[in-house]
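quick one before i forget lol
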Amino acid sequence: MRNLTINRDKTCVGCLMPVKFYVSDEIYGDLIIKGIKCRKIGVLANGSISTFQICNEEVVLFAIIDRISRNYCYGKKIIKAGSEDIFLSGKNKLSLFRGNPFKFYY
């Protein structure tokens, strides 16, 4: 297991909605996002930071607002296999047609 620390930068876009984070998991997944079975690892409020446990294998990380909009309003990041801890940061971006999705910085 390794630590995944995510920083959600404070912004007025999508500030009232918490962002939910999911990782791909074919065994324990309970939600399908873009055809990938995923499990929830945590939630972040606007301007907050938190650390979650993920496996050492390659996973797909999704950031969604809710279950209804999960297939068109999402952020996606592929986390390569390894044992080192990971730090990611991002924020919600203004997009009237996509519902202000969360975007990871690259």
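fyi The radius of gyration is 13 Å.
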